[in-house]
Amino acid sequence: MSREKKISIKEIANISGVSVATVSRVINDNGRFSAETKRKVLKVIEETGYETNYIAKSLRMNKSNTIGILVPDISNTFFSNVVQEIESVLFEDGYATIICNTARSKEKEQAYIKMLKSKMIDGLIVISGFSDFETDDLSESLPVVCIDRKIKLNSHTILIESNHYQGGFDATEELITKGSKNNIILTQHNRLSSTVERLSGFKAAQKKYGLPTTDNSIIAIDMNKNHSRSEAIKSALYPRLATEEGISGIFAINDRLAIEAVRVILNFGLKIPSDVKVVGFDDDPISRYCYPPLTTMQHNVGVIASKACQALVGIIQQSTDPLTSHEVVPVKLIRRETT
Amino acid sequence: MSREKKISIKEIANISGVSVATVSRVINDNGRFSAETKRKVLKVIEETGYETNYIAKSLRMNKSNTIGILVPDISNTFFSNVVQEIESVLFEDGYATIICNTARSKEKEQAYIKMLKSKMIDGLIVISGFSDFETDDLSESLPVVCIDRKIKLNSHTILIESNHYQGGFDATEELITKGSKNNIILTQHNRLSSTVERLSGFKAAQKKYGLPTTDNSIIAIDMNKNHSRSEAIKSALYPRLATEEGISGIFAINDRLAIEAVRVILNFGLKIPSDVKVVGFDDDPISRYCYPPLTTMQHNVGVIASKACQALVGIIQQSTDPLTSHEVVPVKLIRRETT
DNA sequence: TTGTATGCGTTATCAT
DNA sequence: ATGATAACGCATACAA
What we know:
Chain A contains 13 helices and twelve strands. Chain A is an alpha/beta fold. Chain A binds a DNA duplex through residues 6, 8-10, 18-22, 24-25, 27-28, 30-34, 37, 52-53, 55-62.
């Protein structure tokens, strides 16, 4: 493996008999050179297979045409879809993308931010994650757009998010209009804004139809011990299934939870959707293939990604604050066989 | 948003009243400075919040402590798991990771390689993808390790892959030992080495048990038109299900295909696994939750990732060829309810 | 239209 | 133990 030295602008200049400045000009097409020299230089570049050293360019220009993405868990379907979409439009815009998987670790997140800044990234996209770190301080010195991650009010940071409130509302309304009166929300113990909003939507829908939301309406699973998640759901649900006024509708905050719930219910001996109806969230591929196929809320990944990119690139290139700093994109009910 | 100028080594030098050389020495702990100056400089660094500019460092050192990953489709579960794992160990080793989603586009792949080289990446990991591009030329000038991607024999490139042959063999043997005599392989039209190997495994297992592999044993779906994939499987399978000597076992080359096949069979009115048995490949999460839960082959993502990183980092740091240039890691049968 | 010279932030060589 | 300075590859202000 011979790492042959790469050819630089200087070589090109020597070979074609002009100065480095001139070479630089024709490469960047800045004008101020004759057609003849252009031809000459381009020919040499072609022959030598010269390629720009973006490290040097970045150092000189103080920008890298690179943007960073912080994502908590790339193996999560929704996240990876968003990332993939973002990467695609950014690529079109001429930006490279550094995807950083923070594994929900605050330390890793900080380390990555440091690394990204030292790489002179032009902008940063932060997807979800817990909001207790200071994106705000960050956005003072760097264009930042967040996706599904609440930030301080006085922030320069832009926020793009799914309408989790509406999602929670529509999901719950689906349960109700399909005939379920005794509904609960199956949620998790965390402080994600998306979780909070979905709960609000649930409550609002309940209220609209004159249904109460009590402590009993909320079952929150602790995600710390993943292995027993299924057990946790089981022990929370079983006693509530047997009673006179048993649970007849479940809005689960994500599809994984929903599917676990479905299993528990089926094992208990109840029918879905006749005895109890279930709605999930995220439209994970598993919701299409599980049994029975799961009614769920679908994110509009395409517009989330494009809005995020549009906002970020806008503020990078104009170096000015954009018109809207908060976009909320609707989610859509996908009706399948659990309601 | 005030992009305040970042502080450099020069400032540190001025403030602490030493030269830039000295500052650089204490930062890199190269010795040749007094304890006193060290203390002094470190204090200033602390106070000012100085952070190394890795762009400049990279330019000077001709290395970036960054490695690139080329992945065809980050939303594919297996790929995203591998990437996540790789990212994790590389992070521990002090390397940043640039994940590039090539979307199976040759143009994008080339563009990304160009970009990565110009960013002075220290190494490259290529996951799957079609083998008709020249990783070989690449590996002349850059440490490269491939995962599940066949390359030319004379190559410097290292290859880590799942044992697709063994996977195909074990999957098929599972069908046979569970009582199925009339087996087919459900595959796709592509030239991926993994596809080819799985087919070989299928044939070998058939042969071992005195079962023939004819043209009729192979059903290859065209993936071009995704929307009609389900239809394609249906029309391929239906006529073969009705006959006297109907299909009793299907080895599907991936879980998506397997699940579609399961649906077709169920719709046809046959029982699984009593009438026909199915084995998939990849252990996608959907295989756990689909109905009935799918027997499938599980990759050992952890060792694939760690072997890949180990190999890459080894050749980067020692700048020498590693002992083994080809590692094959076993896959594991996960027995669920389709066999 | 073209060339010279300077600087981006580092590290490394060579003095001192 | 420390400092001055060159060099990495590039873009640009200024001079010609």
